[in-house]
Amino acid sequence: MLPIRGSLSLVLPAYNEAENLEAVVRRSLEVLPSLVEAFEIVIVDDGSRDGTGEIAERLARDDPRVRVVHHPVNRGYGAALRSGFAAAQGDLIMFMDADQQFDPADLAHLAPFVPHADIVAGYRVRRRDPWQRLVYAAIFNVAMRLLFGIAVRDIDCAFKVLRGDLVRAIDLRMNGALVNTELLAKAQRAGATIVEVGVRHYPRLSGEPSGGSLRVILRAMREVAQLWWQLLWYQPPRGVGRGRPQPRSSQVMRAVVLVTLVLSASWWLVRRFFQGNR
């Protein structure tokens, strides 16, 4: 018996990954038959300008298990994932970046937990990124934990397996990099159970990363405010999670605590400043 029963859709969002995409797809086609009963690979070309779309089409012609979704213009990481999720037909949906920083064979580490959890989220055991991105990631994870109560150590790790019906029931709207936060926050509100498993992470050898650019960071900051307001009124689907739904009141309480802490710290700093100038 194979480790994972049923069908799986592997979604690969790709933006200007001409130097990496074919290797990622070939590796996936090599290892997935030994891990899952049936699978498809859904490549989402997010308005690439380097030939990624043409490579994706050739790979789809070579193997019927590969399908391609095209965005005429670059719409963002979240939009690419949402298009891939919409096209996915599997009982399970997995997504992974197409930059060769993950090995699809590590799905074997997640496989034992797939039957028992709604989301099996990878976390990078040793993240192989520049130190600046590691600092951004650490600050981001703490901030998202405080704002949205996401109890996951590596929110943006692009190596996750999700129940297909859960993904299709959640109303995802973020177009940018905050889509992982939105996915986990809304899943928790719906009572989804989440298990974390360590996976390997490799240095990017080809192509240019976009996740740490100033434009992406500013977009993410704007989306944080949008997501917080959206979640305040979000009505999660019922009966799609195995666990206890997270109430809306928990978000309000976290906000009250954060505002209180910020105001208290500001008041303390102001008092110290004026006392020091007397």
UniProtKB/TrEMBL annotation:
GO terms for molecular function: undecaprenyl-phosphate 4-deoxy-4-formamido-L-arabinose transferase activity. One of its GO terms (cellular component) is plasma membrane. Residues 9-144 form the Glycosyltransferase 2-like domain. It comes from the Bacteria. Signal peptide: none annotated. Gene3D superfamilies: Spore Coat Polysaccharide Biosynthesis Protein SpsA, Chain A. One of its GO terms (biological process) is lipopolysaccharide biosynthetic process. Keywords: Cell membrane, Glycosyltransferase, Lipopolysaccharide biosynthesis, Membrane, Transferase, Transmembrane, Transmembrane helix. This is Glycosyltransferase family 2 protein. It comes from Thermomicrobium roseum.
